[in-house]
Write a structure and sequence with these properties.
alpha/beta, 8-stranded parallel barrel, 495 residues, 7-stranded antiparallel β-sheet, TIM Barrel, Immunoglobulin-like, binds alpha-L-arabinofuranose
């Protein structure tokens, strides 16, 4: 059996893990809002019309920043359509997904949901068909004390206290030709700078995310980001990254090695941030906001054919996808010093860990790694030196069989390990150079009958977790056996 040693030291800290890397994304797309979180006619609906079964499951993910209302949807959205008396809100043609938008769920419903779920609100303004002034007005509606036009409107709509939305995205994927209002980098930079100034003049406490490249394959990759950051200067607190990964060639070893490429994307984007900071002679460094990430390639149904809540991109996830999701989170933790926010795209029905069918709910494979890591997220990310066998993947370079990250939380050490081997268990030897590992507080492992095994409404627990406590301790080191194609999260006692 292959054996790998994971060397750690408590002083070798990368940085505190920002809880906001466990964020989500709720877009007005397909059945994410309607028939997803919000369905007043469901047997599960609460007094606000939200589905308690969905919310109950989402609570287990312990999500933080919840990005809303898009996505591509945001670039055609006029926020004033979604406030006030629901019976008087307009139904509009939605162009990004060719759907009908009834506007029954809007800003105030979203904020109420954030309160219910303890989510940090994160709004994307419309820099496609909208104006910088419309964006500024939304900040006033959400954040200012009553006494001026838009803040008074919020009070009239039932919320005397401000909503305190501190995180705002300056548009969505504006580098993509598919985006409503797509423009070249310099033009976007001007619009974003104008919006940012007015938004921050309205509320100095907000933080802003500038639109970065929406993928590593874009022809303007890196150049777009440099131009935007240079022009925006200190107004940009974060730059966004997006990434959807795929296993189109049905090559599992290569697919599982995609972590190399995710690490690299993060490091490249951080390099641009540092370059611009130096070039602008600025004291301020922009950090990374990975505000859309997931696996997405099978379901390409993106045309809503003029329907309300059509079935769009309802991807079905399998075991290998779940291991890739764990790989994303491992990469964010390994770069805890620069990745400050990340949003799993999305949360229900649309490329999501949860699927609804009528009043039924299915937990998909990718739900599990997120839940396993989110509950162990407090503390400081530690650097690790991994010594063990690996393989050369066909497009993603050389990787070790074990992909790992770890977080030190006082006298507890959270360790996350994926075994990428298709059919061999692996031994992991965890060594804390400046201390001892004495006991396993708790642990769980995720696996399934094959890489392509997926949960369904008929077999909902094919890919699921089971307790993992069989860790042996000798000379202050922890030693355990990891099943092939598995992801394990454990909390060890460190002294
Ligand atoms: O998450 C689905 C879509 O993917 C988003 O609306 C868009 O930003 C991205 O291209």
């Amino acid at each position: 059996m292959k054996s790998t040693t994971i060397h750690l030291h408590r002083q070798f800290q990368i940085g505190p893990v920002d809880p906001r890397i466990f964020g989500g994304f709720l877009e007005h797309m397909g059945r994410a809002v309607y028939e997803g979180v919000y369905q007043p006619d469901s047997a599960h609906a609460d007094a606000d019309g939200c589905r308690t079964d969905v919310l109950h499951a989402l609570r287990r993910l312990n999500m933080t920043a919840m990005r809303y209302p898009g996505g591509n949807f945001a670039s055609g959205y006029h926020w004033m359509d979604g406030i006030g008396n629901p019976s008087q809100r307009p139904t509009v043609r939605e162009l990004a997904w060719q759907s009908l938008e009834s506007n029954q769920f809007g800003t105030d419903e979203y904020i109420r949901l954030c309160h219910t779920m303890d989510w940090t609100p994160m709004l994307t303004v419309n820099l496609g068909t909208g104006t910088p002034e419309e964006a500024r007005n939304w900040v006033e509606y959400c954040n200012c004390a009553s006494g001026t036009r838009y803040a008074d409107l919020r009070t009239a709509n039932g919320s005397r206290s401000p909503h305190h939305v501190t995180l705002w995205c300056l548009g969505n994927e504006m580098d993509g030709p598919w985006q409503l209002g797509h423009v070249p980098a310099d033009q976007y930079a001007i619009q974003a700078q104008q919006a940012a100034k007015m938004m921050k003049d309205t509320d100095r406490s907000i933080e802003l995310v500038a639109c970065g490249s929406c993928g590593i394959g874009m022809t303007t990759y890196m150049d777009w980001d440099r131009r935007v950051l240079e022009h925006m200067g200190d107004l940009a607190d974060y730059i966004s990254l997006h990434r959807y990964v795929a296993n189109r060639e049905a090559n599992t070893p290569d697919y599982l090695a995609v972590t190399n490429s995710i690490d690299r994307q993060i490091e490249e984007m951080d390099a641009v941030c540092r370059f611009v900071q130096a070039r602008n002679r600025s004291q301020k460094r922009a950090y990374l906001c990975f505000d859309e990430w997931n696996v997405w390639y099978r379901n390409q149904q993106m045309d809503g054919a003029g329907k309300h809540a059509p079935h769009l991109i309802e991807e079905v996830y399998n075991l290998e996808d779940a291991l890739v999701v764990a790989g994303f989170l491992n990469a964010f933790i390994r770069h805890a010093d620069v990745v400050r926010i990340a949003n799993l795209a999305q949360i229900v029905n649309v490329i999501a860990p949860l699927l609804t069918r009528g009043d039924e709910l299915l937990v998909q494979s990718i739900f599990h790694p997120f839940a396993m890591m989110s509950k162990r997220r407090n503390g400081f990310a530690l650097r690790s030196a991994v010594e063990g066998p690996g393989y050369a993947s066909s497009t993603n370079g050389y990787v070790r069989y074990l992909d790992t990250s770890s977080i030190l939380d006082g006298d507890k050490l959270h360790v996350f390990i994926t075994n990428r081997s298709l059919n061999e268990p692996a031994i992991a030897d965890i060594a804390l150079a400046d201390g001892r590992l004495d006991a396993c507080v708790n642990g769980e492992t995720l696996t399934g009958p094959s890489a392509t095994a997926a949960n369904s409404f008929e077999t909902p627990d094919l890919v699921t977790t089971r307790p993992f406590e069989s860790v042996n301790f000798k000379h202050g080191r922890a030693r355990c056996e990891l099943p092939p194609l598995s992801f394990t999260a454990m909390t060890l006692k460190a002294s």
